[in-house]
Amino acid sequence: MKENKFTLVECPRDAMQGWKNFISTGDKIKYLNALLRVGFDVLDCGSFVSAKAIPQMADTAEVISNLDLQDAVTKLLVIVANERGAEEAVKFEDISYLGFPFSISPSFQMRNTNSSLEESFERVKSIQALCEANGKQLVIYLSMGFGNPYGDPYSEDILLYWASKITDLGIRIISLADTVGVATPAQISSALQSLIPVYPQVEFGVHLHADALNWKPKLEAALAAGCHRFDSAIKGIGGCPMAQDELVGNMDTEKMVGFFEEKKIAISIDPKALQNCSEMAVHIFQ
Questions:
Q1: Ordered structural domains, the chain, with CATH
Q2: Residues 6+ apart with CB under 8 A from 118
């Protein structure tokens, strides 16, 4: 992990996955190709999961096959929920990262991947082996990373326990996901400060869900705690449809980029390309 390198992860997959109207494959391809011109470090572009569970992502393979990656600095990430999805994903040479949602809330893990934490950890082992054999890198999303709405136990000791087991597998990117937007700035700060000093070899990120009132304090807390990896989605669209009926929006990319610019943090984003994608999003997410 480079000490001063900030990693910006744009998440159109998270924006699209819970959208009630099916977004055409052609529109997805156009939008993602436009996003590839912005200069994000990583594009969370799709998922190889059950089409029954997430019908919006059923065309991920076709979409990825039609992306124009020539001259793009952006690397592709896809979400998988089991070995079958991982086996499909590693066939694509252009995919650099596989992301697996590992919830430290047993209730949410069952809702999201129909498995217990112990079963899910065995999946992580298998998927990590697939990644290592195929030149991919596994990103673990610790979902419900700041608490949960189900009454399941939550503590920093639980975070540290699972982080230890995950890093023991050689996994070097872990992102804490505020899956339903319950995190306070104090919780974000405390969680990151408990993990980052203990695992200097790991790149810790945040996948924060926020609204117009609390996005900035959450972002400030993560930055002050030493986080250098940030997920977001243009216009803050999206949320996890497996967590609850009402979607809590993602961190707003335009606001986040403006925040980093105010802080004089160097990020390689093309403002005209970003504005173009923002205008496209208005039409795509109708």
A1: 7-284 (3.20.20.70)
A2: none
